[in-house]
């Protein structure tokens, strides 16, 4: 390993490794410049994404860095998600690098400008903040206050800010990618100096302090330092990568223990990416086991049919699978962005077909679907709730995390179509493309309209070389159904699905490989909610448009919650429901629509609440309410079941209509959204719900929206079997609403919802109020599980 790293370093110094650095980190990958996308949905998405990216104002993206470095403002920073200034700029830098690598001149120009500006910022920090800022390059608000105290072990300012390490991680990644995809040496120098700052700023912290800090979302900082180690061979970076590895996740995952229930999903996935990256370089079994087990448990137990995971940004417990069809904050795009990174890393270590099966499914059904096909806007949440919808960002507005990852997602579709290992070429994805395999002198073209047609064709257009072509046998093709012909001669094989068929020969110009990929309809149940099913054709998730009414905020503005589809929730019991005694027959009852590939009707399938729905690829469904998961009931069960949920649905929707604002205490994003303030406060989860409390004079408070209304009440959810003294006061804007005493109040192991009427005088002339729970001395306030501001019924 050290010899290999030394060779890489010497090559870098002598400038003999070529202008593209991609193979220096990921040895089995082809550079983006070597793989060209041909006409098809992915090329369209990539080209549209470039058009969208070029509408952003670079100086506005760069202003957070200039501001923290004390440099004059060139343009005002973007609003929205205030407190996370700078994070999208890092993603944008990555996106510019990816598109510069494939020859886009404007992206290359913007990349060069950003790097020159960032260099000036890094130099300014060294001059103005020598005590803590040498090498620093972040746009984190109040950087000086945070990092000057942090280096001495004082985490107060760090914890008061919004995830500073997560924020700077995005620029770390952007700088690495600028070098990775274009070979830019300025980016490499900025990156490594920034890494050295990260080591210096944590040098005085104990291991216990580091682990305490890692309780805060910190992106993939361990992955970043692992990359720095491979770039340089310097052991200090590998040590830092291990130091930034959160043992609260690493230890159980390495022992095969799933502890993900009710954890913030996208906080955990980048940690696992880093575990696997460390394993790849150090060969340490603990990290390898952790990365592999994390992937297995998320993909097999915690993902939906589209490949995405999480609801309200958290992993629900396995038992809480129905949450997906009740909530509107479904799988988050950032999670899949990071899960695909983890999948690539695992595939490098072990090129197994089941990794690519997941990658392909998620690429088509989640990632591709999160870009609007006309204006290029990005999606944050993809609800699985029947008959709900998604909202899209607009350029220069809504600077969400999923806008940042979305900028990258659509720029690297050519990254995993082909890979190499020793003398083997792996065909992983059936995407129209051309490969220039420079090391072998081979040029090949893949011609396909997959998934609209069940075949693909490879043609060697240049060169002559002996190698093994590894053709993926997807899991969705039945055993023995895959057909391969080389120069019109059928290839025999013994390979099973979810593996690769190996063809070793002397390949030469004019050779043609034809691959037939028969697709079929299959059904998948929602985890722990077997009455809900998803329908797939091959790897493609089928959905159905159900209407365009009430698409509130379809193109989001700069409002704080614009990324959530906040339009009316339609009753679940009135959504289309499949009635079928033998669920295995459902797929066979779909009828293809002539002349419309991948589109189906179901005239022979019994449904209620349905009117001639057309099933089509989910990634084609935009600007509409839709079905992704369907309730499927037997003929004898459905009426009694619907009767039982109809009353519950009516009650839930009535409550939703009365709700002006709500907070889920203990959940990261809702608390940030509602400007949490707290002292001596804790949070946790119980019975699949999150909570927050405060003790011995401590408090917690949230800012809530009233819309100027005065006929309101506050509904608070408590657990009915708490121990200890529970005396506390509830305040509205520092005016006491009530003194409450829950000590021994219910003695019932169930949730208790209590309504408190708010006097109109406390609300008059206000559009927002701050609701505070203050513990009395030697007592606990709460725990509070849910908080709603309601119109009085």
From TrEMBL:
GO annotation (BP), single: carbohydrate metabolic process
Signal peptide as annotated in the record: 1-21
UniProt KW keywords: Signal
Pfam families tied to this protein: Beta-AFase-like_GH127_cat, DUF4986, DUF6805, Glyco_hydro127M
Non-reducing end beta-L-arabinofuranosidase-like GH127 catalytic domain span: 34-414
Domain DUF4986: 547-630
Keyword Transferase: no
Domain Non-reducing end beta-L-arabinofuranosidase-like GH127 middle, first and last residues per copy: 425-519
Sequence ranges assigned to domain Glycoside hydrolase GH146 substrate-binding in this UniProt record: 654-790
Superkingdom of source: Bacteria
Identification of the protein by name: Uncharacterized protein
Species of provenance: Haliscomenobacter hydrossis (strain ATCC 27775 / DSM 1100 / LMG 10767 / O)
């Amino acid at each position: 390993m050290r010899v290999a790293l030394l060779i890489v370093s010497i090559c870098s110094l002598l400038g003999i490794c070529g202008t593209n650095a991609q193979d220096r980190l990921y040895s089995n990958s082809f550079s983006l410049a070597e793989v060209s996308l041909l006409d098809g949905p992915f090329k369209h998405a990539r080209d549209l994404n470039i058009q969208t990216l070029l509408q952003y104002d670079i100086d506005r993206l760069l202003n957070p860095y200039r501001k923290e470095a004390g440099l004059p403002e060139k343009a005002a920073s973007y609003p929205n998600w205030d407190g996370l200034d700078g994070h999208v700029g890092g993603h944008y830098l990555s996106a510019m690098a990816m598109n510069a690598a494939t020859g886009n001149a404007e992206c290359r120009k913007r990349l060069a400008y950003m790097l020159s500006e960032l260099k000036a910022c890094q130099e300014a920090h060294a001059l103005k903040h020598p005590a803590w800022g040498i090498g620093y390059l972040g746009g984190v608000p109040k950087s000086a206050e945070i990092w000057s105290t942090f280096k001495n072990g004082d985490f107060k300012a760090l914890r008061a800010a919004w995830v500073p390490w997560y924020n700077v991680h995005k620029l770390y990644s952007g700088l690495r990618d600028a070098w990775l995809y274009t070979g830019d040496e300025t980016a490499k120098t900025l990156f490594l100096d920034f890494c050295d700052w990260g080591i210096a700023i944590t040098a005085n912290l104990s291991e216990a302090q580091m682990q305490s800090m890692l309780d805060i979302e910190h992106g993939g900082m361990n992955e970043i330092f692992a990359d720095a180690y491979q770039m340089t061979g310097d052991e200090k970076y590998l040590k830092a990568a291990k130091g930034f590895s959160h043992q609260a996740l690493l230890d159980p995952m390495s022992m095969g223990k799933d502890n993900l229930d009710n954890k913030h999903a996208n906080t955990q996935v980048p940690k696992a990416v880093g575990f696997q990256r460390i394993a790849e370089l150090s060969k340490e079994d603990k990290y390898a086991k952790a990365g592999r087990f994390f992937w297995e448990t998320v993909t097999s137990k915690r993902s939906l049919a589209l490949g995405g995971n999480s609801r309200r940004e958290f992993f629900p417990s396995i038992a809480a699978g129905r949450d997906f069809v009740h909530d509107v904050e479904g799988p988050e795009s950032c999670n899949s962005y990071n899960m695909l990174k983890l999948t690539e890393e695992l595939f490098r270590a072990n090129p197994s077909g089941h990794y690519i099966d997941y990658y392909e499914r998620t690429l088509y059904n989640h990632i591709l679907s999160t870009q609007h096909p006309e204006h290029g806007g990005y999606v944050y949440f993809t609800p699985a709730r029947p008959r709900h919808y998604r909202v899209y960002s607009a350029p220069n507005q809504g600077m969400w995390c999923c806008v940042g990852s979305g900028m990258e997602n659509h720029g690297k579709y050519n990254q995993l179509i082909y890979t190499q290992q020793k003398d083997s070429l792996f065909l992983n994805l059936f995407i129209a493309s051309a490969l220039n395999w420079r090391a072998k002198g081979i040029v090949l073209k893949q011609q396909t309209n997959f998934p609209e047609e069940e075949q693909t064709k490879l043609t060697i257009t240049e060169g002559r070389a002996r190698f093994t072509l590894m053709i993926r046998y997807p899991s969705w093709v039945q055993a023995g159904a895959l057909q391969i012909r080389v120069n019109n001669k059928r290839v025999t094989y013994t390979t099973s699905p979810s593996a690769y068929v190996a063809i070793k020969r002397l390949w030469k110009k004019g050779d043609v490989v034809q691959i037939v990929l028969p697709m079929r309809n299959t059904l998948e149940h929602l985890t722990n909610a077997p009455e809900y099913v998803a329908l797939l054709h091959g790897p493609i998730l089928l959905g159905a448009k159900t209407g365009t009414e009430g698409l509130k905020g379809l193109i989001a503005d700069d409002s704080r919650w614009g990324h959530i589809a906040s339009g009316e929730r339609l009753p679940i019991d009135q959504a289309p429901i499949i009635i079928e005694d033998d669920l295995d027959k459902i797929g066979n009852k779909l009828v293809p629509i002539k002349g419309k590939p991948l589109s189906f009707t179901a005239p022979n399938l019994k449904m209620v609440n349905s009117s001639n729905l057309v099933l089509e690829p989910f990634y084609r469904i935009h600007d509409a309410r839709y079905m992704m998961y369907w309730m499927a009931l037997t003929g004898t069960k459905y009426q009694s079941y619907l009767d039982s949920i109809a009353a519950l649905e009516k009650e839930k929707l009535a409550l939703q209509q009365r709700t002006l604002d709500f907070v889920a205490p203990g959940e990261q994003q809702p608390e940030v959204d509602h400007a949490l303030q707290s002292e001596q406060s804790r949070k946790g989860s119980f019975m699949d719900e999150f909570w927050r409390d405060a003790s011995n004079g401590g408090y917690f408070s949230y800012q809530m929206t009233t819309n100027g209304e005065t006929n309101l009440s506050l509904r608070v959810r408590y657990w009915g079997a708490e121990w200890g003294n529970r005396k506390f006061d509830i305040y509205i804007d520092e005016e006491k609403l009530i003194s409450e005493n829950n000590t021994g109040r219910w003695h019932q192991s169930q949730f208790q919802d209590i309504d408190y009427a708010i006097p109109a005088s406390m609300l008059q002339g206000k559009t927002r109020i701050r609701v505070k729970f203050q513990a009395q001395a030697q007592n606990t306030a709460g725990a509070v599980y849910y908080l709603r501001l309601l119109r009085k019924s």
